[in-house]
Design goal:
alpha/beta, Rossmann fold, six-stranded mixed beta sheet, globular
Length: about 260
């Protein structure tokens, strides 16, 4: 039986914090075959995931295990075949920044507000203030082609925050960046989420990224995906990658992935 609820006001914890929660219970999702002679694909089965208000949950797993499907379920972009999805309104930030090349940084960031009906001038003011907070003062009028990869991701993240959603779904947000920039962006995102708290479900192939950023790391099985391990990350922030407890957690996660 399919049950889907998107009523965050019913959860007392969410009323108290102003942040949303995510609860998936025994969810299954199968996609129809793209053409004759090809079998349908069951992306996830018996998938249960929770993210409490203000919690950052990272999801790691092999390619094709249903991680992106999980985010689409949370965001309401696809419906489960069975099980329960109960999530506050969520915004999705994809791997590619998807900035409009003809718009300036501030207009790209303000797009979610403009679509929601906020007057253009007020939307630009809010977006410009957030870009300054994100270290992009002086680049408000720059086009995407004039920005570095890390700067573009900051603009995309600002746009995601300005959507007003209390749950953020981040799908490999730094995968396209070089190793040094990716590490810088991980540290930046950790600080940004301290300043602008949200409930976050982060999908990543980078186990170290998951452990540096998340409160809890979920390891998924090969397709059809389900959670096979949950690792709590209790180290204080900011986190040093050489912290022995984080190194040990990384080894545990890698062991679960290779099991």
């Amino acid at each position: 039986m399919l049950t889907r609820t998107r009523a965050p006001e019913e959860a007392p914890a969410e009323r108290g914090t102003g942040l949303g929660a995510v609860r998936l219970r025994e969810v299954a999702k199968t996609f129809a075959a793209p053409r004759r002679g090809v079998e349908p694909v069951t992306a996830v089965r018996e998938l249960s995931v929770t993210a409490g208000p203000g919690e950052i949950v990272a999801v790691v797993g092999p390619s094709g295990c249903g991680k992106t499907t999980l985010l689409e379920l949370v965001c309401g972009l696809t419906a489960p075949d069975s099980g329960t999805v109960d999530a506050a309104p969520a915004a999705l930030m994809a791997q590619r920044d998807l900035l409009l090349p003809w718009r300036s940084a501030v207009d790209n960031a303000a797009l979610a507000l403009i679509v929601a009906g906020v007057p253009r001038g007020a939307a630009r003011e809010q977006a410009a203030a957030l870009l300054r907070d994100f270290g992009l003062a002086g680049f408000e009028r720059a086009r995407p082609a004039e920005l570095s990869g890390g700067m573009r991701q900051r603009v995309a993240f600002a746009r995601t925050l300005l959507s007003g959603r209390t749950v953020l779904c981040l799908d490999e947000p730094f995968a396209a960046l070089d190793a040094l920039t990716r590490q810088e962006m991980q540290d930046w995102l950790a600080g940004a989420l301290l300043a602008q708290p949200r409930t976050v479900v982060l999908v990543t192939h980078d186990v170290e990224e998951a452990i540096v950023l998340a409160d809890r790391v979920l390891v998924m099985s090969p397709r059809p995906g389900r959670v096979v391990a949950a690792l709590d990350v209790t180290a204080q922030r900011p986190r040093a990658r050489t912290d022995p407890s984080l190194v040990a957690l990384r080894q545990r996660a890698l062991k679960e992935l290779s099991a």
